[in-house]
Amino acid sequence: MENTSNSSAKDGTAVEVYGSFLLGDSELAIAVDMLQEVVDYPSNVTRSPLSPEHLLGIFNLRGTLIPIVDLRGMLDIAGEPCRASSKIAIVNLGETCVGLMFDATREILRVQASENIMFEQADGAKGVIGGCLKLDEGERIVQILSVSALLGIPEVPHMRQRGMSVVRRAPQRQTVAFRVGDTQLALPMEGIREIVRVPSMHPSPLGDALCVGMLNLRGDILPVIDFARLIGVGTTSADPSVDDVSDDRRIVILKDDAVYFGLLVDEVSRIVGYRDDQLLAMPSYAQRHVDWFAGCLADDDGGSLILLKPDALCGYARIKQIAHGHRQLYKDRKVEALGNKGTTRGSRETWVTFRLDQLFGVPIGRLREVIDLPDEIVATPGLPKHVLGVLNLRHELVTLLDVRTLFDMPALANREMAKVLIVELQGEKHGLVVDGLDNIVTLDTAKRIGVPAVLKQQAGQRLAASLDGCIEVPGCGTMMLMIDLEAVCRQGAHALAA
């Protein structure tokens, strides 16, 4: 707040205190007992799925998710905000906490009862503008914003709870993070069947706007859902090309007993480890599919990662209808496509693939998480070339190994897309720096073959000692080299000792 108003109470006269704000050409006041604090517009705002236009997004304020509301549309105030200079007034009523965006703060107003004119509707209820302050002998009129009336509007977001119960010593889980438009989302690893590159798809005969096509996945015909359209953050192109190697889009495959479908996303970015006690509660607005969201994770860069519930997505009536329609149309296609070929159920495993000139892969169960290569790495003098330094990952030290250098490969020219595979060996965490995350695939490991001797001879001693076989990746006709993570870490430790 800037200056203090000249309005003052006579001795013994009760005063009311308000904070005043500017929104376009209007001056609005909020009772200070409803104000928690005023902050600058945050640098990291996560757009919330399925949200109305006036909900600009959510941000993390000291462990609490705060939804940001733009009042312009509600109050019919023209103009576009300048978010760089905007202020967020955090208001709360009971357990509800919302951030209201204003163009600027003005001052603290101390007013007498005679300067406060309250409005009432015909039914006795208060409107969003609950009254006005008549200041400077009527020369200045300030509208009073009724927080209780505002938060009573169904489309204004509410926190379902102020916090979540803390689970002591909660086990770490894994989630796959991906981008849809400007929104960062994630699904728990156990809910994902696999993730594939976007192939050429056939048009869907059902004509549903959510379905961008259908995919033949090893004999199964399944619909592909436009996830951006589903969660209300735009739409994704319905004409993905398998020939465009730079295309980051992926199809995340979900399946339960009743439905089998894919979600088209813009990019699969990383694998994130989390515990249940790290989840923050999501705000809800008009009960729009609140059961889709498990909560929100604070990201390392100050942003937020919204965690979805796969069972709730699978249970969504429209998705079930689309999946059921395709299953009925093509219910005999799988039998015809597979013939007598069988797969041992227990031999299917999920692998993370990445590039080091060639395609490599590691079992996803052996990874703690996958993160972006950080800018801040602590490097001490005298380290060997294959050790980049030490990373502080949520108060745990991780030794970063440059896998290219370790395997005597040429250095990576551009590390902007580099990823770090976090693994743990005998209680010590290591980060293996690779060119980038390529895919997450489900493979029939019974089809693993040994690495040819000529390839081992060309690979070099350290790489050859770290190879555990190779296998063809279905759908792309490429052989993937299977990496033994423990062997890589041992090679790095031996080279360090040498």
From TrEMBL:
GO terms for cellular component: cytosol. Residues 15-156, 172-319, 347-494 form the CheW-like domain. InterPro entries: CheW, CheW-like_dom_sf, CheW-lke_dom. One of its GO terms (biological process) is chemotaxis. Coiled coil: none annotated. SUPFAM superfamilies: CheW-like. Signal peptide: none annotated. It comes from the Bacteria. This is CheW-like domain-containing protein. It comes from Trinickia dinghuensis.
